[in-house]
Design goal:
143 residues; mainly alpha; 5 helices
């Protein structure tokens, strides 16, 4: 799978600091793609998954602060999507921490992880995030 390229027209939400964070998430996803293409996923996947979990935590915290400062009636659903994502990647992290598991399945784990990430990234930004972006642009925070 080739690396994904940021497309302002289809990916930008119009909230600059969130768009920059999404670009960084895309960069991390592309690191996994490059690792698979280079056949270095066995040594790279643990580092990439850790980086993804750390950055996703940071990004989700920023988004959720927006939710708390503005009237967004789907914030609980959105936060649940964030928790599901983090739970899934914590599970991946725990699985790949087991070297026996990783030795048996690093290619499958890496490819399944990449497919999931690309799908999640595109659908989350184009779907869930787009909904809150449309609400937030031009709105004043709740006081």
């Amino acid at each position: 799978m080739n690396s994904m390229i940021w497309n302002d027209k289809t990916m930008s939400l119009g909230i600059p600091f969130i768009d920059e964070q999404h670009k960084e998430l895309l960069n991390i996803i592309n690191q996994l793609s490059t690792s698979i293409y280079s056949n270095t996923q066995k040594k790279d996947i643990f580092i990439i998954i850790n980086k993804l979990i750390d950055y996703a935590n940071f990004h989700f915290t920023c988004e959720e602060e927006l939710f708390n400062n503005l009237k967004y009636n789907k914030k609980d659903e959105h936060k649940n999507e964030h928790r599901e994502f983090l739970n899934k990647f914590t599970k991946y992290h725990n699985q790949i921490s087991n070297s026996e598991y990783l030795n048996q399945a690093e290619i499958i784990i890496s490819q399944e992880t990449l497919i999931y990430l690309v799908d999640w990234f595109l659908h989350h930004i184009a779907g869930t995030d787009r909904i809150y972006a449309e609400i937030f642009i031009g709105k004043e925070p709740v006081k």
